[in-house]
Amino acid sequence: MNYTIIDQIGNTPIVKSIALNTNPNVELYFKLEGNNPGGSVKDRAAYNMIKTALDSKAITKNTRLIEATSGNTGIALAMIAGIFNLDIELVMPETATRERVQTMKAYGAKVTLHPEGIEGARDYAAKKVENEEYFSFNQFANDANWKAHYNTTGPEIWRDTKGEVTHFVSSMGTTGTIMGTSTYLKEKKKTVQIIGVQPKEGSKIPGIRKWPDKYLPKIFNSSKVDVIYEVSKEEAIAMSRKLAKEEGIFAGMSSGGATTVALRLANELKEGVVVSIICDRGDRYLSSELFE
């Protein structure tokens, strides 16, 4: 066997709800992306973006890399950049949890904290690319982001539900996960419903965004999402805690948001097979308010 850590990205488990779903006619499943080696769904996109850039010669071992991130993509990029011996600077909102910053540094990345949130971080990275010959993967406009999920996440869900999935629920950040998975699942079965999750007005939920038009990810195609539900920060926190206590699933706030919506669906449907993404692990939120 010649397995490497890269070979452990993807093929994450899918588990059935044993407590939260009480509708006997609906099966609710959680796809545990925290089981990726870097601890989140973003391992898939980060690997595909780096591999694609290296294969196309868009970058070399000497290229200075920079990327704006709210957290999970940065951790994944730091891990995979380290494996390929690449130097990378990650720009994050200064509100990022200490665990995320420390994890990125442990993998060897330089971390820059920006006072103006993810939008400010994106602008900072863009200026570095424009003025200082840096290269950015620009996850928000990079087809290798969503194609990672078209090639892996979607097929895994189809395989593991034996093609019986009727609804797919995902929180929306860069939108790579929902775009790629939607594209694959709808090619297999047009009737599959794709459900996006965004924060309510005024709610700030790590990993989920309702982007201003100026910052809307270029990879986002609204025709690939059937319905978008909104959740509050309070709902997302409460559900993250329930996931841990009742399902044994330790996850972040964006997973709580997605599960809130998945349960709404499960309660409303007469029958169906709902799959919801659990996008990361809860241990990177221990210094936040999430589990206080």
UniProtKB/TrEMBL annotation:
GO terms of molecular function: cysteine synthase activity
Signal peptide: none
Identification of the protein by name: cysteine synthase
Domain Tryptophan synthase beta chain-like PALP: 7-280
Source species of the chain: Winogradskyella alexanderae
Cross-referenced PROSITE patterns: CYS_SYNTHASE
Essential cofactor(s): pyridoxal 5'-phosphate
This protein's UniProt keywords: Amino-acid biosynthesis, Cysteine biosynthesis, Pyridoxal phosphate, Transferase
Enzyme class: transferase
Catalytic activity field: O-acetyl-L-serine + hydrogen sulfide = L-cysteine + acetate
Database matches in Pfam families: PALP (PF00291)
Gene encoding the protein: cysM
SUPFAM superfamilies registered for this protein in UniProt: Tryptophan synthase beta subunit-like PLP-dependent enzymes
EC number in record: 2.5.1.47
Pathway(s) per entry: Amino-acid biosynthesis; L-cysteine biosynthesis; L-cysteine from L-serine: step 2/2
Keyword Transferase: yes
Family note: Belongs to the cysteine synthase/cystathionine beta-synthase family.
